[in-house]
C-alpha cells in the first residue's frame, strides 16, 4: 500500500499539478527567449512564475526551468547560473548566499521503485538547501535531500542522501542496491 507521500496520477491533485506545469512551462519559455531591455520585464515574469517577487539581491541567469515555480523559496543573495532546472512541486528552499553553477537539477518528485505502483503514483519530498552552500555544475539533487550549511556539492555529483554541514560531497557512481 502506498504511503501518504505519494500522489495518485488519476487524481484532482495531479490534474491541478499538470495544469500548473503547462503554465510554468509557458512562462519560463517566455523568460528564456526574450531579450530584456530592462530588469523590470524579467522581474515581472519571475513574479508570475514564482507567485511572488524575487528577493532584491537574487541573480538568476536564463535559461531557467521550473515545472511548478510556486513551491520554490529563494532567500536573499542567492546566485543561480544558466540552464538550471527546478522540479519543485514538493518544495525547494534555498537559504541565503547559496551559489548554484550551470546545469544543476533539483528533482522533488519521481515514481516509486515498486513496478506495481510506478505508473499510477508519484512520490517525492522537499529539498532544503541551507545557507552558504555551493552546488557545482551539472549536479543533481534528488527528492527529500537536506544540504547543511557551508557544504559544497562537487560538479556532476548525484545527491540522494542528506549532506552534513561544512562537508564536500562528490560522486556519480551508480550501483545495484536491490533486485526484485
Automatic annotation (TrEMBL):
Domain of life assignment: Bacteria
Pfam assignment, any one: Hexapep
Keyword DNA damage among record annotations: no
InterPro entries membership: Hexapep (IPR001451), Hexapep_transf_CS (IPR018357), Hexapeptide_acetyltransf (IPR051159), Trimer_LpxA-like_sf (IPR011004)
Gene3D superfamilies xref list: Hexapeptide repeat proteins (2.160.10.10)
Alphabetical keyword list: Acyltransferase, Repeat, Transferase
GO molecular function: O-acyltransferase activity
GO CC annotations, alphabetized: cytosol
Protein family membership: Belongs to the transferase hexapeptide repeat family.
Family annotation (PANTHER family): ACETYLTRANSFERASE C18B11.09C-RELATED, SIALIC ACID SYNTHASE-RELATED
Protein known as: Acetyltransferase-like isoleucine patch superfamily enzyme
Source organism phylogeny: Bacteria, Bacillati, Actinomycetota, Actinomycetes, Pseudonocardiales
